[in-house]
Write a sequence for this structure.
């Protein structure tokens, strides 16, 4: 193992954004809850039960592209909506309309409270770069670049595969491994020589099925067992635990 806590064969590190680099996972969960709770208020019984911003967020929407998250959650409640199009207005009662409504709420919350980065991750990124490893940010968020710029972290990454790039290249989102595989490809590294850093269960699934050399689960919410079950090689509470410059 290297001083970065990684196998010697690892040549590149692929980082998720929300919950790994930045503290936006809580803001995302709050935006999903506000959007879904307003929508669910029109339903009775179990289908109208408020959205659980921990359990249901983790299971159905965390780490997935917006529309995929909407579909997965609505399917769990037996609710079916027209698909719509990515350009649907936020008030549209379609899958894409709900996703766009969530994004409006997210941007409002980010602008109101700002964005913070995890200091342990920033220090680890500095150490990774100092050791000459290649780096990529891999996120389902279409706001990835803006968030990185907000915390002054854009310069840490050689490659960015986010929601915008995934749409342009028609890459399916997590739990499929395609976005991570695209990042490794763009870095010129075989998946077996790349490490994935993720906090979402969908991200663990992507790391496992993509054949990556090392999959680090970042446990911010007390779900270590679930991260291991979904494919983590190692689980830490903060990347500072892996070593590097402290």
């Amino acid at each position: 193992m290297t001083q970065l806590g990684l196998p010697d064969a690892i040549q590149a590190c692929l980082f998720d954004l929300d919950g790994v680099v930045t503290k936006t996972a809580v803001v995302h969960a709050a935006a999903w809850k506000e959007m879904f709770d307003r929508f669910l208020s029109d339903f009775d019984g179990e289908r109208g039960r408020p959205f659980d911003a921990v359990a249901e967020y983790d299971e159905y929407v965390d780490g997935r592209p917006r529309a995929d998250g909407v579909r997965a959650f609505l399917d769990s409640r037996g609710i079916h909506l027209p698909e719509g199009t990515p350009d649907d207005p936020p008030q549209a009662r379609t899958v894409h309309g709900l996703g766009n409504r969530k994004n409006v709420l997210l941007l409002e919350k980010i602008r109101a409270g700002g964005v913070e980065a995890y200091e342990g991750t920033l220090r680890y990124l500095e150490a990774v770069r100092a050791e000459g490893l290649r780096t990529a940010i891999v996120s389902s968020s279409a706001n990835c670049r803006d968030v990185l710029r907000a915390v002054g972290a854009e310069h840490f990454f050689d490659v960015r595969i986010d929601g915008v790039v995934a749409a342009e290249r028609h890459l399916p989102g997590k739990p499929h491994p395609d976005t991570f595989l695209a990042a490794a490809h763009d870095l010129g590294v075989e998946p077996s020589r790349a490490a994935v850093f993720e906090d979402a269960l969908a991200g663990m699934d992507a790391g496992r099925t993509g054949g990556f050399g090392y999959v680090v689960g970042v446990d911010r919410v007390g779900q270590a067992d679930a991260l291991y079950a979904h494919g983590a090689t190692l689980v830490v509470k903060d990347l500072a635990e892996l070593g590097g410059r402290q």
